Amino acid sequence: MKKNIIAVAVGSLLAVSASQAMAANPIKIGTFLAVTGPASFLGDPELKTLQMYIAEVNAKGGVDGRKVELVHYDTGGRAKEAVNFAKRLIKKDRVDVIVGGSTSGSTLSVMPIVKKNQIPFISLAGSVKIIDPVQKWTFKMPHTDRMAASKIYEDMKKRGITRVALISGNGGFGKSGRVQSLALAGNYGIKIVADESYGRKDTDMTAQLTKIRDTDAQAILNFGFGSGPAIVTKNIRQLGIKVPLYESHGVASKKYIELAGAAAEGVRLPASALLVAEQLSDSNPQKAVLLAYKKKFEAKYGPVSTFGGHAYDGLMIALQAIDRANSTDKAKVRDEIEKTHNFIGTGGVFNMSPTDHLGLGLDAFRMLEIKNGNWTIVK
Fold this sequence. Notes:
Largest sheet: 5 strands, parallel
Number of domains: 2
Strand content: 15-25%
Helix content: 40-55%
CATH topology of the largest domain: Rossmann fold
Radius of gyration: 23 Å
Number of strands: 14
Shape: globular
Strand order of the largest sheet: 2-1-3-4-5
C-alpha cells in the first residue's frame, strides 16, 4: 500500500515538475530581416520594434507566465539567406512562430519551407502574391501592392488624370507592383503610356525618365523601395518634369524624404495612418494605438516608419494567438491567427478569415502628400 502511495506521490511530483518546466520554456519568436544592406530601412525599424516590445512583454511577466525569446538573423536583403535562415529557425532553433521577411522576394522564397514544415508565418512584406492565393500557414501585415495601386488610381481619377507613365524597380516588390498597376489601370479609366524599370544598384534613371518626358503622361507612378525611388524623384525634378509624381507605400518612411530632399515636395503616396497619427480625429479607434507606438519608438530610436509598425502588428497578433490557444502548438496557433478579429494595429483594424490572411480593407490606407518636408493627409 505504501509503495502505491509513494508511486502516486512521485508521479504527481513528476507531473508538476513537467508542468513547471513547460511553463518555464520560453515562447520562441523567429525572425529574418534585412537589417543591413539596401533594404535596411525596412529591417532596422522592424528589428528594433520586435526587441522593444518583447522586452516590454517580458517585463510584465510574459505570455501565460512564459517569457518570450526573439531569435533573429540578418538577411542583408538577400532571398537566398532568407531561405537558409528560415530552415535554421525551424530545424535548429525550433521557434514557435516566424514574424519576419522584410522584402517580398525573401518572403516568397521562404513560403514553401513554411508550408512543408507547417509553422505559422507572419510576413512583413508588401506583395499581394504572399496572400493571394491564400496559403494555409502564411499571413501578412502590410497593405498589398494591389491595394496601393487602387488607392493611387482612385486619387488620380479625382484629379482627372487618365494617362500615366509607370516606372518600377526590378526586385520582387517592384515587379509585383508593376503587374498590379498594369492590371488595374483600365478599371479606373487610366491608360499606361510608358512602362520603364530600373535596377537595385542603378544610380541614375534619367534615360528612362527622358523617354517618359517625351510621352503625353499626365502623372508618373513609381513602384519601388530603397534608394531607387528617391533617385527617380530627384531625376524627375532635374529633368524639369512638372507632372504629379506618385510613389507606393514602399517609401513610407522619413528616410525617403531625407534622400529625395526638396524634390519630394508634392509627392503623393498611400500609407498607413501611423505617419499622420496626430492628424486623426480623436474618435478614430487607431489613434491611441498609433500615438502610443510612436511615442515609445521615437523616444528610443527617432522618427517612426510604417515598417516598424508592421512588426508591432505581427508580433502582437502572434502573441495574442498564442495566448488564446493557451499553447504554442503550431496548428492551434495558426488557427487562432486566422481568427484574428477587430485587432487595432498600426496598419489598420485587422479582421482575418480562412479566405483573407491580411484582413485589411482599402480604407486602412491614407493618401498622403509631402508638404514642407512632412506628411499631410490629402483631403
